[in-house]
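hey so u asked for the seq, here:
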Amino acid sequence: MRRIAYLAGAAVVTMVAMSGSASVAQTTAPVKLGLSAALTGPFNEFGEGIRRGAEVAIEEWNAAGGVLGRKIELAEVLDDQLVPDRAVQNVRRILDNPDIVAMVAPGPSGPTLAVVGMVVADGRPMCNSQAQTPTIVHPDGPDKPPYPNVFSVAMSVPAEAERLGRALTASFNNVGLITESTSYGKLGADLIKKSVLEHKPAATVTAETYNQRAQDMTAQLVRLQRAGAEVIVFVGLGADAAVLRKTMTRLDIALPLYGSSGLVTVPFMEGVGDLAVGVRATNATTFGQKPFSPRTQAFLDRYRNKYGTDRWYGADPENPLISMAPLVTGAYDCVNLLLDGIKRAGSTEPKAVVAAIDKTKDLPGLLVPSISFTPQNHAAFSPNDLAIYEMKKRGDKLALEVISK
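ran it, structure tokens below
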């Protein structure tokens, strides 16, 4: 009996020791984040931008000791090629991994809208860095409650539409819209038309749509020309904007070209070269204001040290591409937001982290200079964070210059 008691006691001690070891291992294990994005394919500027921004932020946190005394890992990085069905598969895999404590949203609106329901049901926090459709965070409208665990620092369609409406009505009476046929494009068309008519009720607005990856936009342009359009306004992705600009040139349509931020991304500039000169578009003020703030300069220095003057940064070390802001710095802000929430929560438990993020007040950012949330508002970006830029030629280089803040 004595031997049995001894063995039972030894077993208890062993179990306690093992439990303690497991607890220590758990509290020292890396804090793991995940993302799905378009890392390959014709729209990989979005996904690779997210990955780069996230990696720079994680590198900064780890250099400062991590969070809660633990290192941070980008543990799941999956490629969806901007295809919603693939994003759904990827996010299911991420959510099936209990070690992932938070995630960055897939990128543009299509994939993000496809996965947001899954994320809401799961409860872990997700930050949106690129998708501009407001229903991603506020499904029933901006004055209604947001999804509890979804937060956004991305530029928004309403903000861009308001900014474009003001700029267009200052010079034009007849506006022609060409927008992609997605929910993002349709919402952009509706909100730009609304903004134009609010600022100039007598204006005329004619709208046309195209399917993503279309190789010709002749029919749409001819119809807008017949409607008497004085300006063409584009809402869509950069690769498609290049098709539009080339079609305008081939048809000898010399109307001014305005648009949302997709109009001045790298694929557009690479696709049209000097034909980009004169184009005007909205984009974040992040890299349009000089001298750069110490925080912005520190980010740029760290980015160049890690990636050089790559496709996202541009060839000029002193003048990063304006489009780098929504493509890269949004993800940088998202990771900082998620990790700051974990730090303030003192835990990776989802409800505690979400509650902490809900109380975020004036967190310094890059895409959004000052990030704040409340339980009623999960969209941090505002029209004040936008400028109107014009594409110009500096020597042998293309560059965007602010023409209106």
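The radius of gyration is 24 Å. The chain has two domains: 29-156+310-383, 158-285+386-404.
lmk if thats what u needed
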